[in-house]
TrEMBL record:
It holds the Pfam family Cation_ATPase. It comes from the Eukaryota. Gene3D superfamilies: Calcium-transporting ATPase, cytoplasmic domain N. Keywords: Magnesium. This is Putative calcium-transporting ATPase 13, plasma membrane-type. It comes from Vitis vinifera. SUPFAM superfamilies: Metal cation-transporting ATPase, ATP-binding domain N.
Amino acid sequence: MKELDDGERMTFEQIIQGMAASSLRCIAFAHEQIPEEEQEIREGRQKLKEDSLTLIGLVGIKDPCRPGVRKSCGGLPIRWSECQNDYR
């Protein structure tokens, strides 16, 4: 394992932006190894620090409209387009 440098972080950011531009929701999977003696103390009380996580990977998930939405809006004067509500 190694710490990501600025170039590698930029690469991941570009991948995430590319997924968002393709209407994919991006989920990052990461973990932190916690010594057994600390597990009970930390359980449910603390958020994990981002700088202590090990990145496992990124996944892009297609998030299609719910069934029937287009049909429900069919008779209304609406111009249909899809967008991501969490794109930054």
